Amino acid sequence: MAGYYTLFQSEKSGEWYFNLKAGNHEIILQSEGYTAKSGAENGIASVRSNGANDDRYERKSSDKGNYWFLLKAGNGQTIGKSEMYTSASSRDNGIESVKKNAPSTDVRES
User: Fold this and answer.
1) Torsion-angle region of residue 11: left (phi > 0), alpha (psi -120 to 50) or beta?
2) Residue range 6-14: average pLDDT?
3) What's the CA gap between 73 and 51, in Å, rounded?
4) Cα–Cα distances in angstroms (integers) from residue 92 to residues 31, 52, 86, 99, 107, in the given order
5) Which residues contact 68 (CB under 8 A, 6 or more apart)?
6) Cα dist. 36→9, 14, 47, 86, 94 in Å?
7) pLDDT at 79
8) CB neighbours of residue 35 within 10 Å
9) pLDDT > 90? residue 106
C-alpha cells in the first residue's frame, strides 16, 4: 500500500499542517505549522522534491538515547520532523520510508 499525505487545520491554533503517512497509516514525517493552507501545500511539494535526497536529512540523537531526523530543503530550512525512535537503526528505517513515500501525490484533506 502506498503512502499519502494528510492536510489539516488545527482547531486550536488555526494553523495548517501536513503529515506524510506510510502505507500502514503510521505518521513518518510531521510538518511545522503554516498560517495559510497554501504554505502547507508548498511544504508537501518540498517533501516531494527533497525527500529522495539523502543529503537533505539531518540525523539527530540525544544523550537520553532518543533518535530522530529532520528533512531540510536546499536552503537549510526544516520541512518536517520525525517521531522519536529508540535506536539509530529505527531512525534510519524511518528515513528510508520517507524516501520511498515522499513522491506520493495522494493528499487527503481532513
Assistant:
1) alpha
2) 96
3) 9
4) 19, 13, 11, 11, 25
5) 60, 61, 81, 82, 83, 84, 85, 91
6) 9, 9, 17, 34, 28
7) 96
8) 11
9) yes
